[in-house]
Amino acid sequence: MTKPRRGVRFPNRAANGLSHEGRRSSMSEISEDGSGSPRMARNAASSSTQLDNIREKSNDTAPASQPSDYEKKKANFLVRTFWTFVMIGLFFGALFSGHIYIILCITVVQIVSFKEVIAIASVPSRARQLRPTKSLNWYWLVTTMYFLYGETVIYYFKHIVLVDRVLLPLATHHRFISFVLYVIGFVFFVANLKAGHLKFQFTNFAWTHMALYLIVVQAHFVMNNVFEGMIWFFLPASLVICNDIFAYICGITFGRTQLIKLSPKKTVEGFVGAWIMTVLWGIVLTNVLMRSKYFICPVNDLGSNIFTGLECDPNPAFLPHTYTLPDLFFLPEGTNFSFTFEPMQFHSMALATFASLIAPFGGFFASGLKRTFKIKDFGDSIPGHGGMTDRMDCQFIMGFFSFVYYQTFVAQHKLNYGNVMELAITGLSLDEQMELVRGLSKYLENQGILDPSIVAALDKALVARR
Questions:
Q1: Separation of alpha carbons 293 and 289, rounded Å
Q2: Which of 52-66, 99-113, 272-286, 330-344 has the lowest mean pLDDT?
Q3: Rounded average pLDDT over 219-229
Q4: Residue 70 CB coordination number (10 Å)
Q5: Is residue 346 packed enough to be buried (19+ CB in 10 Å), middle (13-18) or exposed (0-12)?
Q6: How much is the pLDDT for 38?
Q7: What is the predicted pLDDT for the residue at 8?
Q8: How far apart are CA 94 and CA 97, in angstroms?
Q9: How confident is the model at residue 35 (pLDDT cuts 50, 70, 90)?
Q10: pLDDT score for 376
Q11: For position 189, what pLDDT does the model report?
C-alpha cells in the first residue's frame, strides 16, 4: 500500500473521519493523488448541499422541539411537589394505621437505602465479573436484619416468644444462630478471594459493613423507638424535617456567612435561625402529642391504631411537675418562683437541639460521600427527590440519638411480666418451674381468684408429672 503524501487533503472526509454519506470513507473511494473521482466529487457536492439544507432546517426547528430551561425546572418542580405529597400521605397513613405499618416503612427504607449505597461500589464488581460479591452483600443485609429484628422481638415480646414450642429454641439460641450465619458469610467471602482483585474485594467488604452500620443498625434503633411509644419516633423525625425547612427559609432570608465548605449554600445565620424555630416547633408539637395515649404509650397491642388507641400508665415524663427555683440573693427572704411543666418539654428541647446542631452533619457526611464519588444523588428511588438515602441521611443519626437519650434519661427500668417469664424459663430448672406454678396457683387461690378444685387438679397433675 502506498503511503499518503504529506500535505495531501481529503475533501470527501468530514472532520470526524466520516464521509458525507454518513459512513467512513474506504480506501477505494479515494484516488491515489488524494482527489476523488469526478462522480464522487459530484455526489459529494450534492450531498454537502443537501446536508447543509438539513442542518439549516434542523437549527431552525431545534428551539421549538427542545424544552427550555424554564420548562425543565417547571416540570421537575411539579414532579417533586407531587411526590412530596404522595410521601406525606403514605407516611401519615402508616402513622395512623398502626405501629406495624410504620415498622414496614422503616424496613423498606432500610433495604432501599442499603441498595443505593451498595450500588456505588457494585459497578466495578460487574466489570470485574465478580458475581458472588453482589450476592454476598445481600447476604450480609439479611443476616444483620435477622439478628437485629430477632433481638427486638425477643426483648419486647418475651411473653409470646418464650411460651411457644417452635419459637422458644430460636429465641434462646438467637445470638448463636446469628453468629453462625455471619461466620458462613465470612468463610464464603474468604473462599472467593481472587488474585488481582484483592484490593477491590476487601474495599467492598469494608464498604458493605460501613453501610450496614450507618443504615441498617441505626434504623434498627428507630424501630425500637416505635415500640417505646410513637412519640419517640414521630417527634424526632418531625424535628429534622422542621430544621431542614427553616434552615432553607432563614438562609435565603438573611444568610450571609458560609457554614461549611461541603455545602456552600449552608449559612451560619440559617443554621442558628433553624435551631430557634425547631425548638419552638418541638415545644408546640410535644404539647399536642402528649394528649394522645396512642403516641405516649409503649406498644402492647400491635393491632392498635389512632382510632382504637392504647391504654397504659403514662411515663412520669408526660405528667405535670412543679419546679421551684432556688432562692435568689437579691430578692426578699421567702420569695420564690415556681412553675408547672411536663418534663417531656425539656426532653423535646434537648432533642430539638440535637436535630439542629448535630443531625445536619449526617447530611454533610452524605454530601462529602457524594462528592467523593462525583455523583449528584445516591439514586432515583423517589422521582424529583433523588434517592431514599438523600432524604434520610439525617434521620438515621437522629433516631439513634433518640433511642440512647430515651434509654438514659426517660425509660423506667423496672421488672415486668416479660422479664419474669424470661428469668423463669431460662434461669430455673423444670422442677423449679413446676414449683413456681404450684406456688402461684396457691397464691391465686388464697386471693379468691382460682377455685380450690382447679388448684387441686393442677397440683395433682404436677405431682404425676414429677
A1: 8
A2: 52-66
A3: 93
A4: 8
A5: middle
A6: 44
A7: 44
A8: 5
A9: very low
A10: 84
A11: 94
The answer to whether residues 224 and 405 touch, using CB atoms and an 8 Å cutoff, is no
Check whether 42 has a pLDDT greater than 90.
no
Query: 40: burial class by Cβ within 10 Å (0-12, 13-18, 19+)?
Result: middle
Phi-psi region for residue 309, left (φ > 0), alpha (ψ -120 to 50) or beta?
left
What is the rounded radius of gyration, in angstroms, for the C-alpha atoms of the chain? 34
Say if CB 243 and CB 274 are below 8 A apart: yes
State pLDDT tens for residues 6-26. Answer: 444 444 444 444 434 443 333
pTM above 0.85, yes or no: no
Measured on CA atoms in the order 222, 361, 251, 254, is the torsion positive or negative? positive
Q: In this structure, how many other beta carbons lie within 10 angstroms of the beta carbon of residue 237?
A: 21
pLDDT in tens, 208-223: 999 999 999 999 999 9
Contacts of 433 by beta carbon, 8 Å cutoff, 6+ apart: 424, 425
- Terminal-to-terminal C-alpha distance of the chain: 105
Q: What is the pLDDT of residue 451?
A: 84
Contact 292, 308 (CB under 8 A): no
**H helix runs in 290-386, sequence order:** 293-296, 343-357, 360-373
pLDDT in tens, 246-275: 998 998 888 888 888 877 788 899 999 999
Indicate if the pLDDT at residue 295 is higher than 90: yes
Q: Are 422 and 239 in contact (CB under 8 A)?
A: no
Whole-angstrom Cα distance, residue 385 to residue 84?
A: 8
Give the number of other CB atoms < 10 A from CB of residue 228.
Answer: 21
The CA distance from 362 to 381, in Å, is: 20
Q: What is the DSSP letter of 192?
A: T
Give the span between the Cα atoms of 324 and 425, in whole angstroms.
47
What DSSP line would sit under 61-98, residue for residue?
HHHHHSPPHHHHHHHHHHHHHHHHHHHHHHHHHHHHH-
| Those residues with Cβ within 8 angstroms of residue 304's Cβ, 6 or more apart along the chain or in another chain | 98, 99, 294, 310
What is the SS3 assignment for 324?
Answer: strand
Kindly compute the dihedral angle of the four CA atoms of residues 440, 441, 447, 452, in this order, to the nearest 10 degrees.
-160
Contacts within 8 Å (CB) and 24+ apart, 119-127: 119/379, 120/207, 120/373, 120/375, 120/378, 121/203, 121/204, 121/207, 124/200, 125/200, 125/204
CA nearest 279: which of 329, 351, 213, 336?
A: 351
How distant, in Å, are the alpha carbons of 346, 411, 465 from that of 297?
A: 19, 12, 41
Amino acid at the residue 26: S
